[in-house]
Amino acid sequence: MTRRNRTMAPLTALLTAAALLATGCGTTITPRASGAVADPGAPAPGPSGGKAGKAGKAAPEPRRSPGPLLSLPGLGPKMLSQVPDDTRQALVVTGEGRDENRGTAVLYERERPGAAWRPGTPWPTHNAVRGWTDRHVQGDLRSPIGVFTLTDAGGLLPDPGTKLTYDTGSAFTARGTGSEGEPLAGAFDYVIAINYNRRPGTTPLDWTRPLGASRGGGIWLHVDHDGPTQGCVSFGRPVMKQLLRTLDPAKKPVVVMGDKSSLSR
After folding, report:
1. Cβ-based neighbours of 81, under 8 Å, separated by 6 or more
2. Is the dihedral of CA 140, 101, 244, 33 positive or negative?
3. Contact at 8 Å (CB) between 123 and 130?
4. Which pTM value belongs to this model?
């Protein structure tokens, strides 16, 4: 397996930082210093549930272990048709609404193509400030809807044990503040590049845009910073480490992302 572990020269890091300021990876940011900038989101609070117990406390209802599924839940014919037949890992990110910036993600896995899917634990997510779009363009502050492969990762911190190619270096430093004034520090400690308008097989920092610069880019999965993003999808830090250790290029992982209504088409 090819591993990338680059410590970028200062000039390269500065150029990358300027580029990231214009990408989907970073909420509205107020840079404090030169360096790469970030974009994440924070875990949405989970709903409380259960019946009332003693002393006014809620007694949690027993959870049933989900069984195998013949199809990915919540996906309509159009979206299902975009999931490759040989995919054995599908991360489904379901946004709360077209113009909402919170959602829930579940990693589904199956033993072989055509076998039943087994769901993992639901995780809260953040997406772009203005929600979702079928046609992402630079600066629209919306996350792209669709099915995208996942092949490359990286971050400011060392490889936590992923099977994906992993690039590390100071260019992943996140500085400034997000759209709600939250600090972005640590947002790019771990990232997984979403293969939207990028060249698979390259570092997440690669600036190649096959659809053209006007269609945006730099859309990542990354560490949540307690606020919406500019286009990326963010997860809690432990979840990002878990994803990095779980996703396997041999299983052809994809992310299926969009608002609930769009995914059901």
Report:
1. none
2. positive
3. no
4. 0.79
